[in-house]
Write a structure and sequence with these properties.
This is NAD(P)H-binding protein. By secondary structure, the chain is an alpha/beta fold. Helices cover 37% and strands 15% of the residues. The protein has a domain of 172 residues: Rossmann fold, CATH 3.40.50.720.
């Protein structure tokens, strides 16, 4: 469906869109875009943080007692998996069964370009989704540009040491801006016809981490370098701050990137939204200039 022919589903006008992870990188942007368009939104999170224009509700994947209140009155849901879990299907699939029973008819899942249906982690949820809902989509974005400018470990190491640590070698990745992911998500949630497929979302160009470091250095005037690690070194580095199984999975994704797994671009953003995706340079310029909406002045 093209952006020029897509229309908002009128049947959903009085029902709510439940956005999980509503204060997160993509969730906050999805909430903002939906409320600006006049949609009723339930912004869900562990602390039910107030969000302008939306109804804040408490939701915790590991507390089924929070499910009913979050689902009440919602007919669509934006799904963000629990963080740092290598087996999110364990809690997500029982929730989705309840969501279907409560009247949710459309589900849009945030996954990753690195994880196919049936793959590890959220790939198991991707595989099950078409059997649970007639209306669905799986967003499979490439790695986020915000990883280098937000509160991700890469951004923190750039600020503290001027380095990016990866096991990706010189493999290229078509990094994508979270705002472009959110724009696609809103179309998937509200267009008359659900995509009914997975959508690989990328930025306009594939860059190595060395090239990313060069752009950051040029725009900010700071010394930034990419320091390649082996798979084992990256796994152990990550395991200092997360479960070993999850660290091994992330380091494995880096190793796949070194072999070219993410060296591709797609037309998904342009096809669904009618505009070109933001380039990494433009993203960094916005972050450095303080115009990136979720970033503070300390970012770069």
């Amino acid at each position: 469906m093209s952006a020029t022919t897509a229309m908002t589903d009128p049947a959903s006008a009085s029902a709510a869109v439940l956005v999980l992870g509503a204060t997160g990188t993509t969730g906050s942007r999805v909430v903002s875009r939906l409320t600006v368009r006049g949609h009723r939104v339930k912004a869900a999170g562990r602390r039910a943080t107030p969000v302008e224009g939306a109804e804040a509700v408490r939701f915790d994947w590991h507390d089924p007692a929070t499910y009913e209140g979050a689902l009440d009155g919602a007919d669509r849901v934006y799904l963000v998996a629990p963080l740092d879990s290598a087996t999110p299907a364990d809690v997500m699939l029982p929730f989705l069964e309840r969501a279907r029973a409560s009247g949710v008819r459309r589900a849009v899942l945030l996954s990753s370009s690195a994880i196919p249906a049936g793959g590890p982690a959220v790939g198991q949820v991707h595989q099950a989704l078409p059997g649970l809902f007639d209306e669905w989509a799986v967003l499979r974005p490439s790695w986020f540009m915000q990883n280098f400018t937000g509160d991700h470990m890469h951004a923190r190491s750039i600020r503290a040491e001027g380095v990016i640590l990866t096991a990706a070698g010189e493999g290229r990745v078509a990094f994508v801006d979270a705002d472009d992911i959110a724009a696609v998500a809103v179309h998937a949630l509200t267009d008359v016809r659900a995509p009914g497929t997975d959508l690989v979302i990328t930025g306009p160009e594939a860059l190595s981490h060395t090239e990313v470091a060069a752009v950051l250095a040029e725009v900010t005037g700071r010394a930034v370098a990419h320091r390649p690690l082996s798979y084992e070194e990256m796994r152990d580095h990550l395991a200092a701050s997360m479960p070993l199984e999850y660290a091994a999975m992330l380091a494995g994704m880096d190793r796949a990137n070194a072999r070219g797994a993410e060296d591709r671009t797609t037309d998904t953003v342009r096809r669904l939204t009618g505009r070109e995706p933001r380039s990494f340079r433009d993203h960094v310029l916005a972050a450095a200039g303080g115009t990136e909406p979720t970033l503070s002045a300390r970012v770069l």
